[in-house]
Design goal:
Elements lengths: L5 H7 L7 H13 L6 H9 L7 E2 L40 H10 L3 E5 L2 H13 L3 E5 L5 E2 L3 E2 H8 L2 E5 L7 H11 L3 E5 L15 H4 L6 E6 L24 H6 L4 E5 L10 E5 L1 H8 L3 H5 L3 H15 L7 H6 L3 H11 L3 E7 L11 E9 L3 H5 L5 E2 L1 E3 L2 E5 L8 H9 L3
Helix pairs in contact: 1-2, 2-3, 4-12, 5-6, 5-10
The structure holds pyridoxal-5'-phosphate.
The site of pyridoxal-5'-phosphate has 14 residues, from helix 5 and strand 8.
């Protein structure tokens, strides 16, 4: 029998939600593999390479590979006042809408939004310290997943790294001495987001650094807005540990802070530079700004998040809603799944934030490793495997996905 033509094979799987050229690709692959009957399988495989929803059952709230902070967002196909001043009718700035809200939230004089925190740090260094020295503690020359290494970022931005102090202890006098020799343009303090140095340690607080008369830049990373967590009815949760916040870091004397918006801020991927207006202005006017500026989609989503904070509505920020769900509620949801064994678990914030801090959680445990089968579900469920058991942690699952999780488990066991 002659193999079917590529076109007729592609037409036979047209119920799969892919445009015809991609169905043709799948049909062609199946035929060239000598298995025309696998065209449907190939098309489904192809579909699964597209960006799409996944259920995060890992217990890692800000899972970088699963898109960090989840949030709902919609935007009509309409023009916006992105760079239009409604008052004067003249050109406006895309940097005013949400940046103003961030200032309101953090007490910063000025702020600018860029594509991520790496871009924020790079822009600050390029705009304020090109060809000049930047003093960083040896304890803070960190790598934050995905290749963000402080010494490399420094080199790329044209600033000269001056290492200060030792790995475990760096004192104000070390910074002072470095500044006297190298005339530092900036003192950069980097929050060691994803690891912790303990034991015989000493770091210099922002408040002391601010006395040296050199602009202090603090790369906070995680973007906790305010120590008090005023958007939570229960106030600051214990699992935040000593995590520093933007508002208080600025109050302590930082001239600029940088942070990610898709970590503890719970918004879309973007980054912020906030602080002294002359320094923010220098960043905004730097030629790199155009290369790292976000589009209206991101700014709009970020604005929704910022407005939720201002309404003190932590529940409207999915990251905080998930992080704050009582364990009792997670236990009832686990029972209601009616599959596997209900277990207590420990969730973490992840995304290179709060190392060592755990959030009590709950979920279900299934004997054996069924992670592959769960990933194969129509809406893939991503779970954790430990000691030959699969753990589905419900803290990171939106309750509206519970039935999908139950179905995926039921068809995997
Ligand atoms: C996460 C992090 C970064 C990188 O942020 P992205 O938004 O992922 O680019 C930089 N610095 C610190 C301290 C971080 O925690």
């Amino acid at each position: 029998m002659r193999p079917p033509s590529v076109d007729s094979l592609a037409r036979s799987i047209s119920d799969i939600d892919l445009p015809p050229p991609l169905l043709v690709d799948a049909a062609r692959t199946a035929i060239s593999n000598g298995k025309p009957g696998s065209a449907r399988e190939e098309a489904v495989k192809l579909r699964r390479t597209l960006l799409g929803p996944a259920i995060n059952a890992t217990g890692v709230l800000l899972h970088t590979n699963l898109g960090r902070a989840p949030f709902a967002y919609s935007q009509p196909a309409k023009a916006t006042n992105l760079e239009f001043d409604l008052d004067t009718g003249a050109r406006g700035s895309r940097n005013h809408h949400v940046a103003n809200l961030i200032c309101r939230l953090t007490g910063a004089e000025a702020a600018v939004v860029v594509n991520n925190c790496s871009a924020a740090v790079t822009l600050v260094l390029a705009a304020l310290a090109r060809d000049r020295a930047v003093a960083v503690s040896r304890g803070e020359l960190v790598e934050i997943g995905g290749g963000f290494r402080v010494p490399d970022v420094m080199a790329e931005s044209g600033a000269r790294l001056v290492e200060v102090g030792t790995t475990n202890r760096t004192r104000l006098d070390d910074y002072r001495a470095a500044h006297q020799v190298h005339e530092a343009a900036l003192l950069l303090k980097v929050h060691p987001s994803n690891y912790r140095i303990s034991g015989f340690t000493e770091e210099t607080p922002v408040k002391s650094l601010a006395t040296l008369g050199v602009p202090v830049v603090v790369d906070l990373g995680s973007g906790l807005i305010d120590e008090a967590c005023f958007w939570l009815r229960e106030g600051r949760p214990p699992w935040l540990g000593e995590e520093p916040a933007v508002k208080q870091t600025l109050e302590a004397g930082a001239d600029l802070v940088t942070f990610s918006c898709d970590k503890l801020f719970g918004g879309p991927q973007s980054g912020v530079i906030a602080g002294r207006s002359d320094l923010v202005e220098a960043c905004v006017n730097h030629p790199l700004m155009r290369a790292v500026r976000p589009g209206a989609l991101v700014l709009n989503a970020l604005q929704q998040t910022a407005l939720a904070y201002l309404r003190r509505d932590g529940d409207a920020v999915p990251f905080w809603r998930m992080a704050q769900t009582p364990v009792s509620e997670l236990l009832s949801r686990a029972e209601a799944l009616s599959v596997g064994r209900t277990v207590h678990t420990m969730a973490i914030t992840g995304g290179g934030s709060l190392p060592g801090e755990q959030i009590p959680s709950a979920g279900v445990e299934i004997g054996g490793d069924i992670s592959r089968l769960l990933r194969d579900a129509d809406t893939p469920v991503i779970a954790r495997v430990r000691d030959n058991a699969t753990i589905i942690d419900l803290r990171t699952v939106d309750p509206s996905d519970d039935s999908l999780v139950a179905d995926a488990i039921a068809s995997s066991i």
